[in-house]
Write a structure and sequence with these properties.
CATH architecture: Orthogonal Bundle
Helix content: 55-70%
Number of strands: 3
Distance between the termini: 33 Å
Strand content: 5-15%
Length: about 150
């Protein structure tokens, strides 16, 4: 039985996530993707194969203005293109570029390497039990993004 107080859980989860994200950002920078932030990855996951800024805002639970600003940042990084919508000339469709898809692929590999390191340090049983526990944890009513439960 753990001697860590249950109240520590949210702080440990946040710290673990930040540590994972920092390691992934370092790898992405070395691979030629400087300036990538966690919000960029969330937004790219939310964009999927394409959506409008309004849809992006709804998927991320942010305002239309924040979604437009996020899309602009992603476009400046070369991760998405914005094209006219087929039915409304004012509408812009956000679509990932090959560079954006490659960034997502590399970030997934980096996350897997980090978790593999955890497996080496803590053991497969511990990491598998942690993943199982996280699968049954309560979900927020407002989703940040829908992520696949198995693989990217």
């Amino acid at each position: 039985m753990s001697s860590t107080d249950d109240v520590a859980m949210p702080f440990l989860l946040m710290s673990a996530f930040e540590g994972l994200a920092d390691a992934v950002h370092r790898e992405l920078e070395r691979a030629g993707y400087p300036g990538v932030r966690t919000t960029h990855g969330f937004a790219m996951q939310a964009i999927g194969s394409g959506c409008t800024s309004v849809e992006l805002g709804a998927r991320l639970g942010i305002s239309k203005q924040a979604a437009a600003k996020t899309a602009q940042s992603l476009e400046e990084l070369g991760f998405i293109t914005r094209t006219r919508g087929p039915h409304d000339r004012r509408e812009r469709i956000l679509q990932p570029t090959p560079r954006g898809l490659e960034m997502l692929r590399l970030s997934a590999l980096a996350f897997r390497r980090e978790v593999e390191d955890w497996r080496t340090r803590a053991g497969d049983e511990v990491i598998d039990a942690t993943l199982d526990a996280l699968l049954v944890a309560p979900r927020p009513t407002r989703r940040v993004a829908d992520f696949p439960v198995t693989g990217v």
